[in-house]
Amino acid sequence: LSAPSKLNQMNQAAEAFRGVTVGIKNALAYQGFLRVFSSPKIRKLLINAALSSCALGLVACFLNFYYRPWLVHVALWFGSENKTAWGALVRLFFALFTFGTAVLPWQVATFQIAGMFCRKITNQIVDPDSPPTPSEKKPFPRDPIEIILMALNVAIGMIPIITVILELSIIHAIPYVGMPLEIISRSLYYSYTIWSFKWAVVERNRPGTSVAEKMTYLERNWPYYVGYSLPLVLLTTFLPAPYVGTWTYGLVLPIWVILTHYVRVIPTPSSDVDEQQKSRETFGQTPFPMPLFTLPVKLQNRATAAYRAALIERKDL
């Protein structure tokens, strides 16, 4: 490589490193959290979120120390220790059953309850004087085709998240470099979850950007967002048990969401004028994006196109 090319690469690496450090610094800027915590409504929401996480943590402890060992004894009684095809089938069945009854339900409940409190906290920060808007309940469809289409729509919306989780599992399995690569990738994924709460409120009264556009935006500005969620990932990764990490994630997630409203950030993908005026400087932009969301976006786009084609075909019928 020529000297200018090497210098350009060094400048890009320095800018990316600067983006990571600024993200970490913003994630640890506790002044904004203390300012928000002085609000009685937000303080009450944070306390309720913490109590809910503690309750779910107790459920996780019960499942881990009592329910799962009982399932192990039942599996041994059915012959799971046998080195035969029957033993392998029993082990596979009880592994899936354990995950479906002892791991997945409370993990989903932790994420959903933490997300519910994060949305309420974000609404209070953005517009503290507005009363809560009642949600409009749509009647449940009775037509079986409508039910199938509704289920497909929900499934298409979950494609990016499920695909990213599978990508993280594959990255973790890479020898030697799997753990650091997974930490970096998981930090970017956590940032998407955290900043989505703020972006949803910013785009409430005007046309917003799609999930694909937000993911592409994070890929191009990955240094800052990796640094922003890196302390949270390190906090939840090296804990003694996976269920403790999930419980800690649900406990501290509202704090990271609060900080998104009081940190110096690069312009949001919604191109909000006020946000750009608040932060004119960009951190960590690099010509080499992190392609964590590329495959999920492509899969969702293809699934959405097929879904819309099926809707058009059904209308024509």
Question: What would you say this structure looks like, in words?
Answer:
- With 317 residues, the protein is mainly alpha-helical.
- The protein contains 11 helices and no strands.
- Helix 3 runs antiparallel to helix 9 (242-259) and helix 7 runs antiparallel to helix 11 (294-316).
- The protein is globular, with a radius of gyration of 22 Å.
- It starts with a helix and ends with a helix.
Give the topology, please.
Blueprint: H1 3-27, H2 30-37, H3 40-77, H4 85-126, H5 144-172, H6 178-202, H7 211-220, H8 222-237, H9 242-259, H10 273-278, H11 294-316
Helix pairs in contact: 1-8, 3-4, 3-9, 4-9, 5-6, 5-11, 6-8, 7-11, 8-9
Main features:
317 residues, 11 helices, mainly alpha, single chain
Work out the helix count: 11
Order of SSEs = HHHHHHHHHHH
Low-confidence stretches: 271-282
**Mean pLDDT over the full residue set:** 76
Largest sheet: none
Distance between the termini: 61 Å
Overall, the morphology is: globular
The level of helicity is over 70%
Number of strands: 0
> What's the Cα radius of gyration?
22 Å
Q: By helix and strand content, what is the structural category?
A: mainly alpha
Content of β-strand: under 5%
